[in-house]
Structure formats: structure tokens, C-alpha cells
Design a protein that fits this description.
The protein is an all-alpha fold and 102 residues long. The chain contains six helices and no strands. The chain has a domain at 18-88.
């Protein structure tokens, strides 16, 4: 039993049964949301120029990589924007079975 506050980070495969997206689904969502005007959010809130966000979306969409991590391994110039997209886009968690205690 855990006695201290603990954060567990699980890969997409481990969290899929709890309604979390797989790596491929997350990638699809990122491409879709960036195509729906999220570039302005990244510029306004994070200071990332719209042109850089659009370049990331275009390069990622055209790549044959199935996950953001696999893409970023070969495109380090997009590391900042790639990492931020995976943390800023909404992921459904309702009914995922995650609980917290204090």
C-alpha cells in the first residue's frame, strides 16, 4: 500500500481499458485540434508563434510516425511544441477509474 502521495505515469496501452486514448488516438486528436484554431492558444498562452505550431502540425501529419514521441525522436526542432501539445489537449477522464486520496 502506498503511504505517501504518489504519481503513477502509465503508457497508453496500460490506460486504454480506462477510456484513455492510445498513442495513435492522441496523435489524431492533436492533429485535429491544431487544425481547429488551437495555434492561437499556443501563441497567446505559451508564447509559441503560430507559424511554429502550424509547421509542427504539418510535419507531424505528413510523417509516418504513429505517436508524438516517435516523431520527436527524429525532429528535435519540434521538441518543445510536441511536448506541450501532449500535456495541453483535453483527454477524457470521466469514468477512468482513477482515484485520489489525501
Amino acid at each position: 500500500m502506498l503511504t505517501r502521495k504518489t504519481v503513477l505515469v502509465l503508457g497508453a496501452g496500460a490506460s486504454y481499458p480506462y477510456n484513455m486514448p492510445t498513442g495513435i488516438e492522441l496523435s489524431r486528436r492533436i492533429v485535429e485540434l491544431l487544425g481547429q484554431g488551437a495555434e492561437a492558444f499556443f501563441q497567446d498562452k505559451l508564447g509559441i508563434p503560430i507559424e511554429k505550431t502550424q509547421a509542427f502540425r504539418s510535419a507531424f501529419f505528413r510523417s509516418s510516425k504513429k505517436s508524438v514521441d516517435a516523431f520527436l525522436e527524429h525532429r528535435p526542432e519540434f521538441l518543445e511544441i510536441g511536448n506541450r501539445t501532449t500535456t495541453f489537449f483535453p483527454i477524457p477522464t470521466v469514468g477512468c477509474g482513477i482515484s485520489t486520496t489525501t
